[in-house]
Design goal:
single chain, about 210 residues, mainly alpha, Cytochrome Bc1 Complex, Chain D, domain 2, two-stranded antiparallel sheet, about 45% helix, globular, binds heme C
Length: about 210
């Protein structure tokens, strides 16, 4: 009886100490996110939003290099598909020349001296990770070569739609891959993505010339 009473007296203390020294994972995450957000005051929403993990990113971070379970993969694919937004025109392949510039351009959303660099538009910097124009000497190899993309696959509606969605949110087709989610994260607008699509699929694009 005595022991039970004592346990009752001390139990709340033990619980309180436990909470103070080990905040749970959600608490730790939200205070870390808050600190990152407060470290960059006055930033555009596209940047502050990046400090908060969305559900797909959270799953990918938990898994790390381990294998995704089928349920986790399905969750990432589903939330990624739900993120798709299409251009008002409904036309998913735009102007390949504008796309060529965007594919080589890494400008935008950079912070210098505590300020977001003022840019007219962001680039996609595809060349950092992909080979595209066979004339380019200096290309990245983090992602597969996309040289001859349209020459090999054609430019059917299905190819154009896949390419648009892949660039908008790569994880809809390959959960947790290293390809940035360019449309979903607001780096490229739907309109800009249509130009990059054209750069990949248009028969006139250097990507599809020998
Ligand atoms: C940080 C590196 C990185 C950047 C930047 C990047 N990608 Fe990727 N990309 C990858 C990786 C890695 C893959 C393979 C995994 C996957 O499919 O998500 C990939 C896959 C792809 C695929 C699918 C290839 C296939 O065979 O179907 C396409 C299309 C693509 N990228 C286009 C682009 C375009 C266009 C851009 C620029 C707007 C771009 N990527 C920017 C890393 C990158």
């Amino acid at each position: 009886m005595k022991a039970i009473k004592l346990a009752m007296v001390f139990a709340p203390v033990v619980v309180a100490v436990g909470c103070a020294s080990f905040p749970d994972a959600d608490e730790t995450r939200s205070s870390a996110e808050q600190m990152v957000k407060e470290a960059f005051p006055g930033m555009p929403e596209t940047l502050t939003r990046r400090a908060m993990q969305d559900p797909a990113q959270r799953t990918c971070s938990i898994v790390g290099d381990a294998k995704l379970s089928p349920e986790q993969a399905a969750q990432v694919v589903q939330t990624s598909q739900a993120s798709f937004k299409y251009p008002a025109s409904g036309k998913l392949a735009g102007d390949w020349k504008a796309g060529a510039k965007l594919a080589a351009d890494g400008a935008g959303l950079r912070i210098r001296g505590g300020q977001v660099e003022k840019m007219k538009e962001n680039g996609g910097l595809c060349v950092n990770c992909h080979a595209l124009d066979p004339q380019d000497v200096n290309v990245g190899n983090v992602g597969p070569s996309l040289t001859g993309y349209g020459a090999q696959r054609g430019s059917s509606d299905a190819v154009v739609k896949y390419t648009y969605e892949k660039i908008y949110n790569a994880w809809a087709y390959f959960p947790c891959s290293n390809m940035p989610r360019l449309g979903h994260n607001g780096f490229l607008t739907p309109e800009q993505i249509t130009h990059v699509v054209a750069y990949l699929v248009d028969p006139q694009s250097p990507v599809n010339k020998k």
